[in-house]
Predict the structure of ABC transporter permease.
Amino acid sequence: MLNNWLKIAFINYKKNWLSTIINLFGLTIGLTGFMLILMHWNDEESYERWNPKKENIYAFQTHNKAENTYGNNISVPMAERAIKVIPEVKDFVLFNGSGMGYKMTTKVKTVYQGEGMSASESFFNFFPFRLVSGSYKDALKGDKVMALSTKAAKNLFGKTNVAGETVKINNKSFVVTAVYELPEANSQIKPDFIFSPYEQMKGDKEQWGNFNYGCFFLLKPGTDVEALQQKFYDNIFLYRAKISAQGAGVTPQKYLELYGPTGSLFTPIDKIKLHAKASWFGNGDFKTMMILFTLSVLIVVLSAINFINLKTAQASQRAKEISVRKAIGSTKSNLVLQFLLETFVICLASYLLSLALTELLLPSFNKFYNKEIVMNDWHIYFYSFLMVLAVTLISGLIPATYLANFKAIETLKGNFARSKHGIWLRNGILTLQLIISSFFIIGGLIVNKQVKYMMDKDLGFSGKQVFLINFSENSDKPWLKYERIKNEMKKIEGVADVSYGEAVPGSGRFSNSNIDYMDKSIFAQHGSMDYNYLQFMDVKLKKGRWLNPDLASDTITNVLVNEAFVNKFGWTDDQAFKNEVRPGFDNRPYHIVGIVKDFNVLNPRRAIEPIVFFHYRETDWKRYNVYNIQLKIKPDDIDGTVKRIKSYWQKNVEPGYPFDSYFIDKKFAESFVKYQKQQTLFTILNAMVLMVALLGLFALSSLMIEQKLKDVAIRKTLGASDGTLIFGLTKQFLWITFIAVLISIPISYYLMNEWLKDFDYRIDMPVFPFVLSLISLLILTFAVVSIKAYQATKVNLVKYLKYE
């Protein structure tokens, strides 16, 4: 029986070769997209799964409920109090720096070693890397110890058994206490060396508002995380507010409203890569992942719709076969199983083809996402095969049941062609397919328009030909280093000007604090800078004046602010000049002398935050954070100037250190990459959807028009023109397309409006994509269907009229 079913299946595949190819092509494309996105998702979810304690380690995040914003930092006393007063908290580890690099000297050689981290002494209790040499006990206790990865140990000593050896950094000696091997599995936490921020933590023990640390907590098994968050509010946040509120002259609750945070959030360590609201190691983007996955599933659904439509359209060709088989005793269940088998064979062939195509496209996909995914995870094969089975059942069961329900007597009499049941089913499914296609066209156009809007938006500064060099070598007095090399670097041929700024567009680095005025407080970024920095970056002065190095007050208590700062306080420009503010980094009152036009520092999608600009010498601690020098390069010989700058830097400023530099405009452009990739993926998926949908429409219209050839022959004999016949054959499909687009418009509007809500700078919802979707789909439908309709007008009249 099985052999017979397969023979019949292959006879029908050959007979309907166009439908077979379209089904194979559509399912292969859909399953390939599904597998690629599934592998991408699986790779993102795999981070930190190697950690045996992952079920009890949680990343700590703060939540400001009033503004619905999240942070990833904590202060030392908050973490220490948590372990004392909250029973569920067993331990904590604090991070104070990552991606660090130093020139290190050993008895063997002097080399630069990067990818370091500053973490508290509990680090190895959270991350039990395989120990190669030494001991984890007290490995990070004190300020003169460090642990090395096997890679760093080989780089510094040429071997891994180096516990007890000494490493010098800036004339300070460190003892190597442990050598560890990093896991091969995906992890965001792979330091090549680890220090303890011992001295800094010691100084921050009483600084409740000094949020300079990232934090993981080790919780007791079975901890109720929601209850834990409430305990943090009651025992940590409220406790801190009670301590500080008295000095501020407000209630603890009011203090929390002013200075926050007002809540906490805990994310399991193996979920932070994709799901964390805010993380020390980078924020996740689960929403985009779900959008991509949903779109990939929609393509498979479109392929299944093609299958259903084509199978039901072919019903008339198989109606008599089924009726004869029923008449000689075949059961309905046997017929359903036979048609399911025919569907499964096509789906299985598509699955095998999609595996090959996925393997072929994987290198390009990895390059696109900067990943190293390989097809060695059984989950990929398992879930993709489940999708194949689902498609088999969905796209096979509907037409199988439909075909098996033919009434043998009526069909053998020739009445099947007059039944409208199949027509309604096909039209309904075709409408659904065109609704999805319309959504993709509308969505693709809106995504393109939003990305173009962000890229074309006036950023408020000019980073063109501004070359930034980060300081790699630690200095006891970095501001003096900047001031020493500033005048020397001005002398380099091709350098037009030199400056320094803390809030560098595209750098991702920033610090902020509360700024108080009477009973109101806002958070504002710090913009410590050299006097000429804002002019250097071509930022526009809206009102007031620039800072002047010849005025003593400008080096002590005068600041500039941006428009967002003024607006946040609800002032007019004139009011801003009359009011004095108190930044959280100082007790002195500061006077605003100038207001600059807003310019984008962090991200093109985010609203511009309030910034306060002041000279880096104004505060004792800010001058210790001078971390770069910026040079404006003349346009006539940029490459030559960069080579001269690099040569001078490596010989006279930081010999032996990497030359960490970039052009600011190019660096800021990297913040658009994520959205450009979304735009590219949406365009590719859009093309795939339209291709699958239009091929399905062509095959379906071909089958349906073939069923009407006798009607065409009769009408042509009676004198109907070719144009009339073509329009008559296509108008049904045009109406279906028109209705489908009308249905898709409110759905597309809602979904794309939700997507646009993620952008503080967004376009107004345009009308053009909705109109273009209607026009383009009508044109494409007419073009696809009219090809077969035109062929139908050239039929051999004798062939179809000889029995009439």
User: Anything to note?
Assistant: Residues 411-419 have pLDDT under 50 and may be disordered.
